[in-house]
Amino acid sequence: MRKLTILLAEGDLNLGPIVKTFLEKNEFNVRLVTNGQAAIKAYSSEEIDFVILETSLEVFDGYTTAEQIRDLDPTIPIMFISDKHKDIDSIVKGFEIGADDYVCKPFSMEEVLCRVNAISRRSIIVRPEDNIFEIGEFYSFDYNRHILTYKGDSKNQPSEIKLTGKESELLNIFCLSMNQTVDRTVILQKVWKNNSYFNARSMDVYITKIRKYLSNDPNVRLANQHGVGFKLTIHKES
Predict the structure, then answer these.
(1) Are 66 and 98 in contact (CB under 8 A)?
(2) Residue 54 pLDDT > 90, yes or no?
(3) CA separation (Å) from 116 to 7, 54, 188, 193, 221?
C-alpha cells in the first residue's frame, strides 16, 4: 500500500520541520512549504492526498489558501493549525470554508497524527484514477467522468446516466462513506459551502434524483437517517 502524501504549510521555521519529521516517521510522505502561495503551487503540480494549513500563513493566509485548494478539489481533506487558542470565530470560519478538522497550538504530535489518521479513514482517500465505485450488483460510478452506469442483467444492456456536478459530488460522498451515516451539515458544507435553508431544500431534491437513478436495484438503498443525514447501503440477499 502506497504512502499518503501530506502537504504541510507551516510558517514557523522551527515547528514545520518537527511536524514533517514526525509524520514521515509514521509512514507519510510530507511536502513542507512556508507560505500560502507555495502551498497552492505545490498542490497544483503534485499528487497530494491531505492538506494541513497554518491559518496565519504569509502571502496568502490559510483560509484563502484553503479556498483556492477547494476550488481545485472540493473533496481533499484539509486540517487547519491555528495559534489563536480556541478562538471560536476563527474555528467557525475554518469549518465554513470546508475544513475537516481544526487544531490549536500548542498541540502534541500524537494529537496531530490521530486527527490525520481519523480523517483519512473517514475519507477513504483514493487517487483520481481509482475513483470508480461498484454500487451493488448492477451499478458502477465513475466519479471523474460523472457517469453512473447501470450494467443491467441478462435481459438488459448497460446504460449510462450523465450526472451533473452536484449529483456527482453527492454520490461520491456517499460512496466514500458506504454503510455510514453522512451528516446533512457535512454534505451541505462540502457541496454547497453553507447550510442555508434553501441549500438544504436543494440538497433534498438532488437526493431524490439519485435515489431514482439507483432504483433498478432493490438492494441499493439511500436511506434518510431522520434528523441526522443519509446512508448509502447495499443489502445482500441471504
Answers:
(1) yes
(2) yes
(3) 12, 15, 22, 22, 30
Strands (E), 39-190: 50-54, 78-82, 101-104, 132-135, 139-142, 147-150, 159-162, 182-183
Nearest-10 crossing angle of helices 15-25, 109-123:
60
Label residue 128 by pLDDT band (50, 70, 90): very low
Q: For strand 159-162 and strand 182-183, is the pairing parallel, antiparallel, or unpaired?
A: unpaired
Strands lying side by side in the sheet with 5-9: 29-33, 5-9, 50-54, 78-82, 101-104
Q: What is the pLDDT of residue 156?
A: 57
Phi, psi angles (nearest 5°) of residue 19:
-65, -40
pLDDT at 127: 47
Rounded to 10 degrees, the C-alpha dihedral 127/125/150/180 comes to: 180
Query: What span, in angstroms and rounded, lies between the C-alpha atoms of 97 and 78?
Result: 10
Q: Tell me if 62 sits within 8 A of 54, measured CB to CB.
A: yes
Please state the separation of Cα 51 from the chain's center in Å. Answer: 11
Q: Cα separation of 221 and 205, whole Å? A: 16
Quick check: 183 and 170 in contact, CB under 8 A?
no
Quote the CA–CA distance of 137 and 236 in Å, as a whole number: 9
